UniProtKB/TrEMBL annotation:
This is RNA polymerase sigma-70 factor (ECF subfamily). Residues 35-102 form the RNA polymerase sigma-70 region domain. It comes from Geodermatophilus tzadiensis. Residues 137-189 form the RNA polymerase sigma factor 70 region 4 type domain. Gene3D superfamilies: 1.10.1740.10, Winged helix-like DNA-binding domain superfamily/Winged helix DNA-binding domain (1.10.10.10). GO terms for molecular function: DNA binding; sigma factor activity. GO terms for biological process: DNA-templated transcription initiation.
């Protein structure tokens, strides 16, 4: 990308992300590189978790960063942190990719002569996937009703793949505060989701934040 002047220190937290976005808006390709280094790992982890395929996950990540470069004004700081917005876009594009792949597979399946033999298993799989999507949608709806601090912590940890310590660093909050926010957020999710909460907490909200070293305790 050519020689660029980089800051002496790597930006941290939401203010650092906002500074990088401002540089992207000014046409600084080096700022995109900085954002890529900062969010590549959690973005890929989230996309890979949804798509279960490395190539598709990498395509999604590249697409998101390309979107940031082409339309940096899509991010509105008044609506929340850049990290939450960015990871939400990764999630959205990954889900769209899943739908495209499923649509393609369905078209192929209809053309196969042995469709009748595979239909019972396929029907069960489709039913399971449909239920998983219902749960995931309810979780996202419940997350949107949480206070900003709780929603941000849970989104970064479970959708973004960050540990609790990393969430604390990104949000510039004490580790104890992050743990409290996540605990309070999970309790509110259970209240909102009722019976679905158990499945969503173990599925849609499963992530590395449960363990430290791979995640924080």
């Amino acid at each position: 990308m050519g020689a660029v002047t980089r800051p002496a220190r790597r930006p941290e937290g939401d203010s650092g992300d906002a500074d990088l976005v401002s540089r992207v808006r000014a046409g600084d390709r080096g700022a995109v590189d900085d954002l890529y280094e900062r969010f590549r790992r959690p973005a890929f982890a989230l996309a890979r978790r949804i798509l279960a395929e490395d190539t598709l996950a990498e395509d999604v990540v590249q697409d998101v960063f390309l979107t940031v470069w082409r339309d940096p004004y899509a991010y509105d700081r008044s609506r929340g942190s850049f990290s939450s917005w960015f990871m939400a876009m990764v999630h959205h594009k990954a889900v769209d990719a899943v739908r495209r792949e499923e649509s393609h597979r369905r078209r192929q399946s209809r053309a196969e002569d042995d469709l009748a033999l595979t239909a019972p298993t396929s029907a069960r799989d489709v039913e399971d996937e449909a239920w998983a999507r219902v749960v995931s949608e309810r979780v996202r709806t419940a997350l949107s009703a949480l206070p900003d601090a709780q929603r941000e912590a849970l989104t970064l940890a479970y959708y973004g793949g960050y540990t609790q310590r990393e969430v604390a660093a990104l949000t510039r909050a004490p580790l104890g505060t992050v743990k409290t926010r996540m605990l309070a957020g999970m309790r509110r999710l259970k209240e909102e989701l009722g019976v679905v909460a158990g499945a969503s907490a173990g599925g849609a909200l499963s992530g590395p934040a449960a363990v430290d070293g791979g995640a924080a305790r």
